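A sample copied in:

***
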Amino acid sequence: MFLHIGGNTVIPTRDIIGIFSYSSNENKITGEFLNANEEKGTTLKIDDSNNKSFIVTENQIYYSPIAANTLKKRAKLGFNSSEFKKLDI
């Protein structure tokens, strides 16, 4: 399954490590993690002006204009219960 995360961007749900609210970047460790990935060039902003969430995959971090809870609900629809437990969403 694929998850639509905004704009014209979809990602395979099997690649998702976590979906987080953008406001969690106010946490010092999370902010450092995001900044380090921006410096490495492994981030993609779907909409520069309206980040509501970020999605972490093994190779990329996506900033999305869609709320984390909405993305989690969409992702949940694409998993059977055993796969969903693995992601801890």
In short: The chain has three helices and six strands. The helical segments are 28-40, 68-77, 81-87. The CA atoms of residues 23 and 52 lie 8 Å apart. Residues 2-87 form one domain.
